[in-house]
Amino acid sequence: SYHTGPHTYAAPHSSNQPLAVIGGVAVGVLCATLAIAVAPSSLYGATTQAPSATMVAGSAPVSNVPSAASFRTAVTPMQAAQGVQVPTMLLQGSQSASSLPMQLGLSALMMFIGGAIYQFFRPAHQPLPVPAPFSIVVPSAERTVRLVTGMADARTSVAMLAVSSEKKKVVGIKSPVFNETCDQTGITLTRFMLEVARANPDLQELESVFASIQTACKTIAKLVKRSSIDGMTGLQAGGGAVNVQGEEQKKLDVITNDVLKRALKFTGRMGVIASEEEDVPVEVDNTMDESYGKDVVVEESGGRYISVFDPLDGSSNVDAGIPVGTIFGIFAEDEDCKLSDSFFDDNKDISEAMKGCLRSTLKPGTSLVAAGYALYSSATHFVFTLGAGVNGFTLDESIGEFILTHPNIKIPPRGKIYSINEANRNNWDAPMQEYIEGLATGHNRGKKAYTSRYIGSMVGDVHRTLLYGGVFGYPADTKNKNGKLRLLYEAAPMSFLVEQAGGKSTTGLVRVMDIPPKDVHQRVPLVMGGSDEIDELVELYQK
């Protein structure tokens, strides 16, 4: 915004000016009127005597009423000496003519006096000061990727976006506006991201990443729905297949990981991919086919983004038809190494290429550019954030498109549901036990008892928390001292979503988004929910 500040000045005090003008004119007019009114009685008093008739010896009587001829005949001195009567009107006319200069002089004098009075009362002239030049203050922009959507009317959604990288200043982004929608499809995720890219050509690469992610999620939704029919339930290879965390892999774990990994790789925008099902991050080869260089001019941008994901969260429940989901996070590639060389002192066998992958991947949640999840349940939901708001889409299977159904999701400061595995209650630390007990009994700031709802699938529980409010948690206990959820591809992306929806996420001691990962599969305690609810928990840990 611009702040303008011209110098202010006090206008000359002009309350006496009308009085001075009126007074000067009034005095001048009054004096002139008096002069005119008095002059006839004094100057013409001698001529106003009207004798009826005057007899002159040897002549006939002469009337005092002049005839027309008397005005045209001059009276000579001889006639006057002989006693000839001079017409009264001629005498009056000659005397009036002689007094006219005196009347004009008196009027001029009176006007002069009025003008002098006006000049006496009029304030001294004060020239208006010249305003100083406006000063313009341009506030510094935030370093975020922002996307805000809202409904302008029943069928028109407006999206507002701003983007930056860690090495560049914020660039203003034109907001894509949807002035027209199809009554049958609404606003699809495909069109939503295309409009963003059309309004902002710099985001075309991110649009292609989201296009691939949504394609992978549609494929996984189909695989989950048909898993029992197509024989994809049960353990991988009949059992014995274990991932790096010591967890037995389901068939769908392996299949969905391959689907999402290939979809991201095919975008040509990924530099590194890290997954729950992969032991280490994988560097993506973005080399183009040789024919592209011969026949087609193509600008190769290389891998601009790093993707981390859990391809099938809650897969242990998939055989029972319990809701499961996919969690993903997107980081921007940059040359600013987050890890020092001493980080690799205990890992002498790590190759230089792997060191580069780890440097790109091990970033705190505050470096996320985008994050989201897909929920495979009674419907398939796709919820994501680009850094300023959370938007939810629902898959319309009849047309194969995600439709905007939940724009600008917000978590209330307090809800009425807590979602946690209470079987571990006796293994929690004292602050957590006191906190959950307060929610269950109503001895909390909200003064109301909460209801317990726990699915056991993080995506399902967090999705309900986003829509209904409340608390979700998987805290540390005596069996899992560091918690159970993975920081890089579960806790950080979900915390990003919750915070962008107005909530908070903590381990009890620190904000989850601020924790720098030390390992791709590092685990952390996690409790997230409404802002008031999490503040209450943090205070219990600070006692």
From TrEMBL:
The keyword Transmembrane applies. GO terms for cellular component: cytosol. Residues 187-407 form the Fructose-1-6-bisphosphatase class I N-terminal domain. The chain crosses the membrane at residues 20-39, 104-121. InterPro entries: FBPase_C_dom, FBPase_class-1, FBPase_N, FBPtase, Fructose_bisphosphatase_AS. It catalyses: beta-D-fructose 1,6-bisphosphate + H2O = beta-D-fructose 6-phosphate + phosphate. One of its GO terms (biological process) is fructose metabolic process. Pathway: Carbohydrate biosynthesis. Its EC number is 3.1.3.11. Gene3D superfamilies: 3.40.190.80, Fructose-1,6-Bisphosphatase, subunit A, domain 1. GO terms for molecular function: fructose 1,6-bisphosphate 1-phosphatase activity; metal ion binding. It is an enzyme of class 3 (hydrolase). Residues 411-541 form the Fructose-1-6-bisphosphatase class 1 C-terminal domain. PROSITE patterns: FBPASE (PS00124). Its cofactor is Mg(2+). It holds the Pfam family FBPase_C. It comes from the Eukaryota. HAMAP family: FBPase_class1 (MF_01855). Belongs to the FBPase class 1 family. This is fructose-bisphosphatase. It comes from Discoplastis spathirhyncha.
